[in-house]
From TrEMBL:
Transmembrane segments: none
Annotated protein name in UniProt: Nuclear receptor
PROSITE patterns linked to this entry: NR_LBD, NUCLEAR_REC_DBD_2
Lineage, uppermost ranks: Eukaryota, Metazoa, Ecdysozoa, Nematoda, Chromadorea
An example Gene Ontology CC term for this record: nucleus
One Gene Ontology MF term: sequence-specific DNA binding
Pfam families xrefs: Hormone_recep (PF00104), zf-C4 (PF00105)
Organism: Pristionchus pacificus
Alphabetical list of SMART domains matching this protein: HOLI, ZnF_C4
Amino acid sequence: MSTRVCVICTAPIIVQHLRIESCRACASFYKRTVIAGRRFICRKGGDNCEILSRDKFACRSCRYNKCVQHGMVYRVPGLKKPRKLRNGSGDVILPSISPASENKTLIDRVGAEYRNTVERRLTLERAYIAEHNLLPARNTTVLEFYVGNFASFYGIFRIAIKESLSLVESIFDDFDKLPTDLMVALFRNFFSRFTMIECVYLTAKHFKDKNVFVASLITIAELDNMEPWLSDIDDKETFATSMKQFTSEFADILMPLIKLDNLTETEFHALAVLSCCDVDTSHQFPEEIVSIAHAKRTRVFDELQNYYRNGLKLDDFSQRLGNLMTIAHGADEAGKLMHDEMRLYSTLFDFCAGDRLLAEFFEE
């Protein structure tokens, strides 16, 4: 049995990759990073994070630096002329940064649009809650929160999907001119992560020391009392077993994030941008889209550093940046878990029956 291990992450290997003792995963990571020209910031700020193959949230900055230190090399082949997406009339439709949008920071622009979406969502959520007679949450006499259930989660989730499309439009200036399949892929890439980031932000803000998840703007799931979530289900035993398992997994991912230092509103808005710009490579987005997303990601980090120095007057903000990266990684993991959960429920309980919007959003 081979005793060779990857010098980057200690995973067992049989052959070399990119001329050093490395695994395929680390070599692929390095190759993607070089091709994209990406820059990373150490999650903990010390540039000495331990990299292990079993760690789902390994620091990408330290992983990349370790690849370089061990002599990993990849030379990008001669670049081809960039492909241009066109509509039926032959007009180029790739997103571009318009001069007008540069007058305001990207974080501020997205923040302003988020506040607009919140106003619309609150109006629609309150109407839904009144129509379906959801009960007020316990021990929240000052705040407006209601106890959600299985039906309300999906009813209100549909509202959030429809009203949050404008957030992606505020990040990608010509988003509405892209081909439909690309628009759908970009939005799905964004929304599951953003839903989890919003959950962490609002839960930490209102219920930091309670065993509660915020399920929408004004509905919650009380983890010690999940009975309301079973009220509309026929096969309660099967559903309860599945829900208990998924709730435990969500708690393992999200609760540590909720207990971190509270996000400021600006940091939350920055994470909203990052949830859109950290594109999932499995979707095989066009190179131009990936390049634009990476450029906006870099811009957000520049704006964040300016905010920390001039807004919060911090000399050392490595911990805050590290927390943001931890939340971003956790939200990505939780977003994927949500898709797994919804697809299971769709199979077992047919919850998407007749609902094309939800069916398309949670499809493979």
